[in-house]
Specification:
It is built from seven helices and ten strands. The chain is of the alpha+beta class. Helix 1 packs parallel to helix 7 (195-215), helix 4 crosses helix 7 (195-215) and helix 6 (172-182) packs across helix 7 (195-215). The radius of gyration is 20 Å and the shape is globular. The two termini are 28 Å apart. A hairpin with a 4-residue loop joins strand 6 (94-100) and strand 7 (105-110). The longest helix has 21 residues, at 195-215. It binds a DNA duplex through residues 1-3, 6, 32, 59, 74-78, 93, 110-116, 153-155, 159, 162-164, 171-174, 251-254.
DNA sequence: ACATTGACCTGAGAGC
DNA sequence: TGCTCTCAGGTCAATG
């Protein structure tokens, strides 16, 4: 799940469940997922504190602690959050458990352990150290910024869109959706795109695909009928014309596209 | 310097 | 049923 829209939903979830409650205790069953910190340090930093806000940059979620400091969560391919009182109602693969004074627990789950749990003192510094590009839903992300970023890449457009150092938050699924909506095939070289193509991709990212996905709570079954995501599997057909979707491999990742509605190679 | 590949994890589903 | 193989919404180090 966890690309930008999914993480935005996790952020909203954390915001609506877990702010302003004292953290009583912390358990770290997924110690091997910690990055740059230890279970004992994490417990020491979190215990007795509370989350004041929840922020997001690209695919990263940040829980802002009172006074200062941030809990950093990355969800890999299989991460998600749950908030519960009854342990039995929660699914497994819990890697981090934050116990609040109201008896509820915020749990971070991650089946494949490809995510990360970390601490950060300063958000901007964290983003800079990770080398993350701008968040496409940030206010400073304009067409000129986007075009300049893109023009520096020699890769296939799908790979460029997924490069977190250029642009933070787009992954395998949503890059397919953006290119489907823009009518451009995923294997087209980024440098071969026209200004019109770039503008079209920019608009799809910022005004259509990402906001629409967030509106749909990143739930494929709630996406508009014109989206390719629900059809993105073997045997899937284009939602616009019924043509069988084509499947290729680009930059080691599986890409789906409609040969009728997407131009290029 | 940049782009692509393989490794890291675990589980689900297909095919035999 | 049970085994093996492939694949999965991400990222990083190693390789070309």
């Amino acid at each position: 799940m966890p690309e930008l829209p999914d993480v935005e939903i996790f952020r909203q979830y954390m915001e609506s469940t877990s702010l302003q409650q004292e953290i009583r205790n912390v358990e770290v069953p997924g110690k091997d997922m910690l990055e740059g910190t230890s279970a004992s340090r994490l417990k020491k930093v979190l215990r007795g504190r509370l989350f004041q806000n929840a922020r997001r940059h690209g695919k990263y979620l940040f829980g802002g602690l009172d006074e200062e400091g941030w809990l950093v969560l990355h969800f890999g391919m299989t991460g998600f959050l749950s908030y519960f009182r009854d342990e039995k109602q929660s699914t497994s693969h819990k890697r981090l458990l934050i116990r609040f004074s109201n008896g509820y627990t915020l749990a971070y789950h991650c089946l494949r352990k490809l995510g990360k749990i970390a601490l950060a003192d300063d958000l901007n510094r964290f983003i800079e150290e990770k080398g993350l590009g701008p968040d496409p839903l940030g206010s400073s992300f304009d067409l000129e910024t986007f075009s300049n970023t893109m023009s520096a890449s020699r890769a296939a457009v799908k790979s460029t869109l997924m490069n977190q150092k250029l642009l933070a938050g787009i992954g395998n699924i949503y890059s397919d959706e953006i290119l489907f909506q823009a009518g451009i095939r995923p294997g087209v070289k980024t440098r071969d795109l026209s200004d019109k193509d770039l503008e079209s991709i920019y608009i799809e990212i910022t005004q259509n695909v990402l906001p629409t996905a967030i509106e749909a709570r990143a739930d494929p079954s709630r996406l508009p009928a014109s989206f390719i995501i629900p059809h993105r599997h073997g045997g899937g057909a284009c939602p616009l014309c019924g043509t069988a979707l084509r499947k290729t491999r680009i930059g080691g990742r599986t890409a789906y596209f409609c040969p009728q509605h997407q131009h290029g190679c």
